[in-house]
Design brief:
6-stranded antiparallel sheet, 26% strand, 433 residues, 25% helix
Length: 433
């Protein structure tokens, strides 16, 4: 019965109210059996039929309005996961490395090392955010490197965060609204460096590196050989593939044609010194330039097909997908946020978090005193309209649905980061109870 009701549930009514079950419960309160039998006939066969008929009419009206409202589908939703590097499937056309250099057989990492360091490895810490912070603050660990006692330094693998930050700028250049990318996995990668072994020769970096690091209490959480993937493919193109005649004597317009098979996907053009303007049109992207010909320009393909799990792709898929609803789409189209508890909770639970956490309450505070503020997943977004010190605090309270799961607090941080983009007048924080 429940499944049947859920199939008929309108997206306007965003909570399951089973009127038949409600009537049946109220009928049980009638002690006289004859009166109960009469009331059942009147209510279920009379008012029940009317309610069912009205529901069908409201659904028909909703669909009519929905079709008349021009609502563009989101073509830029992102998916992030992690795998063992050895399990990477190049035939999977829905997931690609966040950092293409991760696929190289040997990673030297010289560009990430300081003067007294030599890159050793990149590890993933399978732990909650608080444990990751303690690991990061610890910073140094002892061990052996090629048979010698050594000190190892760990730092957050910033190349993945740089990819997110660069992508944000590309969204701005293409005039596409930014949605928070879930960095729950990316924030748990660390580069490991051996410190102070000056007798390591340059060509030694090309030999097999044997490092044994004692991570202490963190040892069970350390995972080796992991790389992050997302649903964004980087494409190089040139004017031989995409040409358009000169539109005037000064500038040229070049076309990037969107394939018919990928029409549901999102495409972005990475701006460079030769691109003066980017304009998105149906089925193509136009780029204004002084260059008549070019080569090596870059585009980003955001795949919207259902994510394929190749063999041993077992970790969760962290997405910024939002569940579809009529009021949600209409609100986004009008670029408005109703500051009510109902609308706030609807926006939160529309995010792809329901398997892990749920919002249970909120609190407005006058200051941040006594509250812990986690780093935003949109740390690169600067908001100078409402200074932090002048804002009230919107504290969102959450409950775990998967008890003790290591990504739960990352889910809270993701929600808070996204809501912060929409509610500028408050400083948003999250509490996991």
């Amino acid at each position: 019965m429940k499944d049947k009701w859920d199939e008929r549930l309108s997206s306007v009514i965003e909570y399951p109210f089973d009127y038949k079950r409600y009537i049946e419960k109220r009928l049980r309160e009638i002690e006289d059996l004859d009166e109960r039998r009469f009331a059942k006939t009147v209510l279920l066969e009379g008012l029940g039929k009317i309610a069912e008929c009205m529901e069908r009419k409201y659904q028909s009206l909703e669909q009519r309005i929905y079709r008349e409202t021009e609502i563009e589908e989101n073509r830029y939703e992102t998916v992030v996961t992690i795998i063992r590097k050895s399990d990477y499937d190049p035939m999977n056309v829905t997931l690609f490395p966040v950092y293409s250099g991760d696929l190289e057989e040997e990673i030297f990492g010289g560009e990430w090392a300081l003067k007294d360091e030599h890159y050793v490895d990149t590890i993933f810490l399978k732990a909650d955010d608080k444990t990751v912070q303690r690991f990061q603050k610890t910073g140094k660990f002892s061990g052996f490197y090629q048979g010698k006692e050594a000190v190892f330094r760990v730092r957050l693998a910033c190349r993945y965060r740089e990819q997110i930050q660069n992508l944000y700028q590309i969204f701005l250049d293409n005039h596409i609204p930014w949605e928070t990318i879930h960095t729950g996995f990316l924030d748990k990668f660390f580069d490991v460096f051996v410190v102070g072994l000056n007798d390591i020769e340059e060509d030694d970096s090309q030999q097999e590196r044997k490092a044994e690091v004692d991570y202490g209490v963190f040892q069970p959480m350390v995972c080796f050989g992991q790389i992050p993937l997302w649903n964004i493919e980087q494409i190089c193109f040139d004017s031989v593939s995409f040409m358009l005649p000169c539109i005037d004597g000064i500038y040229y317009e070049h076309e990037f044609l969107i394939p018919d098979l990928g029409s549901e996907d999102g495409y972005l053009i990475k701006i460079n010194k030769d691109i003066l303007e980017i304009r998105h049109e149906k089925g193509k992207i136009l780029m204004k330039s002084e260059k008549e010909t070019f080569e090596g320009w870059q585009a980003f393909h955001v795949v919207q097909k259902k994510t394929v799990r190749s063999l041993d792709y077992t970790e969760p898929l962290l997405t910024n997908h939002k569940k579809d609803s009529f009021f949600g789409k209409l609100s986004e189209r009008r670029n408005s946020l109703l500051l009510t508890k109902t609308d706030l909770f609807r926006r939160i639970m529309a995010l792809d978090i329901e398997e892990y956490i749920e919002v249970v309450g909120y609190e407005i505070r006058q200051s941040i005193e006594g509250s812990e503020v986690a780093e935003s997943m949109n740390w690169f977004v600067r908001d100078e309209l409402f200074p932090i010190e002048t804002r009230k605090v919107l504290m969102l309270q959450f409950r775990e649905k998967r008890q003790g799961f290591y990504l739960n607090d990352s889910m809270v941080r993701f929600v808070v980061s996204q809501i912060q983009l929409e509610v500028n007048e408050y400083l948003c924080i999250g509490v996991l109870g």
